[in-house]
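Why do we bother with holo predictions? Because pocket geometry can differ from the apo form. Keep that in mind while you read this record for zinc ion.
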Amino acid sequence: MRALTWHGRGDIRCETVPDPKIEDARDCIIKVTSCAICGSDLHLMGGFVPGMHTHDVLGHETMGEVVEVGAGAKHKLSVGDRVVVPFTIACGECRQCKWSNFSCCERTNPNGAMQAKLYGYQVAGLYGYGEATGRIPGGQAQYLRVPMADVGPIKVPEGMTDEQVLFLSDIFPTAYQAAEHCEITPEDTILVLGCGPVGLLAIRSALMLGAKRVIAVDTVPERLALAKKSGAEVIDFNAAPIQEQVLELTHGKGPDAVIEAVGMESHGSPETLLEKAENLISSMERPFGLNDAIIACRPSGIVSLAGVFVGPVAGVNMGAYVNKGLTMKTGQTNVQRYLEPLMKRIVDGEIDPSFIITHRGGLEDGPELYKTFRDKKDGCIKVVLHPNG
Ligand SMILES: [Zn+2]
Ligand SMILES: [Zn+2]
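The structure, written out:
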């Protein structure tokens, strides 16, 4: 089959790789009808995630048609079903899965021992995301092996298009979980740092959860325009420092919670340029978005981290974090927890997450579209690929 594969920093290729096969009774194989490129795929492309190997198949936002199910397991899926596949792989049986903490599943990372050396314990296996998360081949490919297929994937109801439901695989639940972590009350003002795909869906999620105001921060005009359209007031940090604008818009009170939707490759606001120079020397991971969140949040508020981090991060402003009495909420997304309620919101017409899609293509267009997305060229916000035409 054809697939998008990793070949080193900045080098993504479309090449022929072996077809996936059923390896366990609980597996299924899907023929991929749509997949997306994620901001965290750019971290892989940029070489920020260790443990990637040449020819590793990328992609963790995937949906398609079931073409084979493992014999001997109790499957709720059958051949011909259309499904969306959560990027976090969960067994449904371990202690963490029983608590609905599917992203902390204790059994699905084949390289769990290696991960435990880094993190103390193992957490869930992920598709297309390097050695420590299991090196499980991803779904930017014509076919995908879905482990624990009796637990993860959700069937797509009649009449829903791929584009309406594809983002249930990651970014819609990720944005929604980040908003839920803000413990929103009807009086709350929520600040969203970063108006990429997750930030935009976080704006919508915070409003759906009843926030009084959402203020969104970015500097790319197309993203700010979509943020406004999504119901947020916006801050362009090229115009003036973030904190100055936050204080002005909130009459000095500050937001009750801040969703950081930027992560380790954040570029930061101009006032952190000096810090940036120092930090580039000492750390691969750049906490500018996180520090902006810590500063912008009102004392005793919540910082909800949706951005991706991999290892230790130097330069985090722990002084501000501790002295302001902030709470931080984090985690890979417990996607399985959100599939049914968020599918219902889509079916009921409360939200159509496809509003963020700007670019579409085939698998062969993938390498070029990765660059378009990375460089935010051509107004690119979100790329969807159709690997089987
Ligand atoms: Zn993703
Ligand atoms: Zn589990």
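The first strand starts at residue 2 and ends at 6.
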